[in-house]
Structures are given as C-alpha cells and as structure tokens.
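Predict structure. Chain length: 427.
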Amino acid sequence: MKKIVITLLCAIGLSPLFAQDSTLVLSLEQAQDYAVRQNRSMQNAALEVKKAHAQRWQTIAAMLPQADASGQYINMCNYEMNFMGGSMPMPNYLTANVTASIGINGQAIVGVLLQNIAIEMQDINRKQTEAELRGNVMTAYMSVKVMESVTSLLDSTLANMFTLAEQTRRMVEVGAAEQTQYDLMSVRVNAMKNNVNQNKRNVDLAYNTLRVLLGVKADTPLQLSSALDAESMSSQILNLISEPFVLENNYNYQLLQKNVDLAKKNKAMAGWAYGPTVGASYQYQYRHNLSDGGLNMTPPNMIAVSVSMPIWSSGKRAAGVTEKKLALQEAENTLSETTDNLGIQHRQLCNNLENAYAIFLNEKENLTVTHRVMNNVVNKYTWGSASLLELTNASNDVISAQSTYVQASLTMIQNFVELEKFLHNEI
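Prediction complete.
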C-alpha cells in the first residue's frame, strides 16, 4: 500500500544529521528509520526470523544423508582363546568405521512445511513490531513538539506577568497600590512559573522516551527538525478516516490466518503417524591387527534398507489426530470471530479519531482565545482598567487551556497512530 505521508510535520530529510556539537538532528521520518535500525526490540524481532530459518534447515537436514566416523584401539591383554583343542592368541587391533544413513517419513516432510509457516509468522511479527515502533516514535516526537510549542506560549505569558509584578511592586513603593495586590500578583507569578517548569519536565520526559525508542544513550542531544503543520493535519486525518478497511492487510488477521494453516499442517502431521518410515544405510569397517595371528571376521562393507510400519498403539495415534482436528476447529472459530470483530473495531477507531480531532480543534481554538484574552487583560491591568481578579481569572484560564490542549493533542496523535497500524499502513 502506498505510504501515507505524515505531513503533520514538514522538512523531512534523507538521513539523520549531526550538528557540530554532536547533536543528533532528526526529522520525523529520519527518527522512525533510525529507530528501526537501532532499537533492540526491532533487532530481536529480526533475529527471530533468522532463528526460524535456522530451525527449518535443521528439520530439512534431518531428512538428508547423515555420516559418522569412529575409530578404536582394542588391547586384549594377552588373552588366548581355546579353539578346536588349541589356543589362539587374541591380537591387539585398530578399527575404523564409517556409517552413512538416511531416513524419511511423512511427518518429517510436513515438519518442513510447518517451519515455512513459522517463518512467515515471525516475519509478520517483525512487520508488526516495526509498525508499533514507528507509531511510538511518532507519538513521542509529536509529544515533544506539542509541549515545546505550549512552553513557548507559557514563557511569553510568564514574562508579561513578571513585568506586571514589577510594575505593581513599584506602585506599592510610591503608595499607588496596596501590598496585598503585589502579594496576590506574586502568587499568580509563582503558579505560572510552576506550570511552566512542569511542562518543561514533561518535555524532558518525552525526549527521554524518544531516546529509548531510538536506542541512543541518555545524554545524547536531540534536535527535532520537523515543524508542526496544522493546515495539513485536517486532510491527513480526513483521508485516513475515509480510507477503506482491507481485511487482508491487518497484521492480526494475517497471524490468525497463518495459525489456521499451522493447525491444518499439525493435523496432517498427526495423520502421518500411521505412515511408514523408510531408511537406508551403508557401513564401511576396517580392522588392522597389530600382531600376527587371530581371526578377522569383520565384513568391510554392509548395506541395509529398512521399512517400518506402525501397527498398534492402543489408540494413541487416533487420539492425537482427534486432538489436532479439534485444535483446527478452534483456530477456525477464532479466525471467524476476529474477522467479524475487526470491521467493528475499524469503525470504532475511526469514530475515536474523528472525535479526538474535533476536541483538538476546539481546544486549539480555546488556547488561542485564552491567550488573546490574557494579553488584553494584561494591557488593561497595565493602564488600570482591569482588576487583579480579572487578571487572576485570565491566568487560570490560560493554565487550564494549555493543559487540556496538550492532552487533546496527544489523544489525537495516539488515535491517529492506532488507526494507521490497524489499516496496516506505513507510519
């Protein structure tokens, strides 16, 4: 499926850049690609695919010819054997043996097919892990950008309040205002300062989360080069909501489908317990006596062909086949139930994103309005046409608006990522 370009952020480059002070400069896409290469969970998911390939080769190799060699030195300790009325010394000797064999049955062949399905399932898990990682990187990246933008707004508001507090202090000194006005203003300044510091700590937390996802050290400086683009946000969300749901693209559905295939092969393997096992072997033996005398009755070459057929197991094999049939029915029932539920889940995820987007737009407008009101009240307070109570209420509204705006932004991003992953789009 064509990759949906996330234009919530712009200025996407081709590769991560390093500033002169060793700062890691990343756009959103660069951060996602970097995490896919460096994240330990992603590396482990790729290793699981390689392990599945190795396990399949072990199953195949077990059906191919096997060869073993051995050697011995035998010392009879001067023993003499009575033979036809006489004695025969038993010489010390050396032996060398080489054995080659091959054996195959229906269960071994089905076992290879099972390993093929296991490889496919591990590859789906790897893709699912990558989608989860890209989504988590996007969430952390956007969280930083959202909270940094809010911090910038709060810093400007805090600077204005510092200016007003200083003006109030000078008015108190010349007797134009009461001390309680300055005290109340100091309380509001401290409240705003605490809010700014809390938001900055949240920014640091989001940066640390991003570092963990990128697989870099805790002291690695990061610079996020992509900028918010609110205009393109609407089109991306609306396009995603209207995108049709293709069942076969969903990772959970793919895994359950492979689980059904796996159950079918397990059933076939249980049935092959009634089948024959065919084997063949060749053995070469060499014996060298270290002294004169003694008999050498060791045949140098031996070929054997065998066929074995199970006859009676007191119902053990029949019970095994029944168990695998029931397991197949369970897997098919789970697939059918999930197929029905995925359509409902898609509708719910679309509704969640649509609702989160509407709330985000509302809170974004509220934040803009509260800041505009705050600036207006500050100007009026400066000229004495607004009371301290009005200023207090305006600053409380700003603090509340920025908190709800951040929460609405993060909720919208999370719902966007969840729907992207559900539709099996590249994030």
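Summary: The longest helix spans residues 106-173.
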